[in-house]
Amino acid sequence: MSSALPHRSAVDSARWPDVARLPSPRPGQTAIARHLIGRTLRKLALATDARKGPGPAYAHPAITVHAPDAFFRRIGRDGLIGFGESYMAGEWDSNDLSGLLTVLATHVDDLVPAPLRRLRPLWVSARPGSDRNTRQGARQNIHRHYDLSNDLFASFLDPTLSYSSAIFTAFPARFDSLAGAQHRKIDRLLDLAQVGEGTRLLEIGTGWGELALRAAARGARVTTLTLSAEQAELARARIQAAGFADRVEIQLRDYRDVEGRYDAVISVEMIEAVGAEYWPAYFTALEGALASGARIALQAITMGHQHMLNTAATNTWISKYIFPGGLIPSRRALAEHAAAAGLRTVADNGYGEHYAETLRLWRGQFAANGQTVTGLGFDPVFQRMWDFYLAYSEAGFRSRYLDVRQILLTQGTRR
After folding, report:
1. Fewer CB within 10 Å, N side or C side of the chain?
2. Residue 145 has pLDDT above 90, yes or no
3. How many CA atoms does the CB half-sphere of 160 hold within 13 Å?
4. pTM of this structure
């Protein structure tokens, strides 16, 4: 858990304008927020004693509010975005952040009384048009997250540099290394797509190259696409060092510009960055890249369909600070868009608890390497933001609000 920040006056207002300043007061909305949050905390028995502060005395997740006026004003004005920004500002803490957020996520549909749900428009805003994943917009959105720093990601990922859910043999993962669990995940995807000697494999979303390396070791010839210059540079170096430069080609290319036909296509947790507007183009690109009899293996985070619809047009804390332009699809949306592109869903398996464990391990490493992150130039606001992001994501999977699926698609009949 991160320590509280200095006063807001110490926050870099150019880098974090909405954290450095409080929103203008709106007494009615602040009063509603104070009532709803107080009701929620009482209902869920979440301790809120600012005098004690968070610590081991609590036997369950607890929230400690250091600056109540600021806390309620932010939430009253900006809802869940304000809740996250208040954490970034150091206005509240928890003895168990992921546990607290898991409790809240588990009860997310029951927290606001039905009559007050009509007031939701007071707390939500539309996504900015600049976040649309046009070709230029997609490059900018990817740059804002994945080009932060390769060293930043290395500070919490395992040596494979895999930034997606691992698959473990047991929980908790005391006897299973994260690197081994990541290789298990990659191998299952390669097996789904039947990648072996001589396979022409297209990967959409290179990451730092671990899947391409593992496919090349099987004898495949890999073309892998990314929009991240930082990732591409390190992935090329890793592939060169492994001796597979003759089998792997990394292209800085948009998925919409895929060329050629392949025996297998794999894409790992990339569709979440596509945006609902472009899902038809994504699945059309997948189908268009297939040679006869080819297979597609996807790993995708999913959420419930109604939750997806509620989120689609809304600016959220995650879309504002972590993944601009992104949207997590539902299983229904995936199946419908795949079918519309002429693809048939053959297998669909879930690993949500595995992602929760992956995120727990990442967050622990991020905290343990705080000095390294500081040395890379990332300030306390960023570090609290990243801590909240990892805990928030873990809570989504622990509460089953989110899932992660490995999906096998084959050629079918276009409707």
Report:
1. C
2. yes
3. 22
4. 0.92
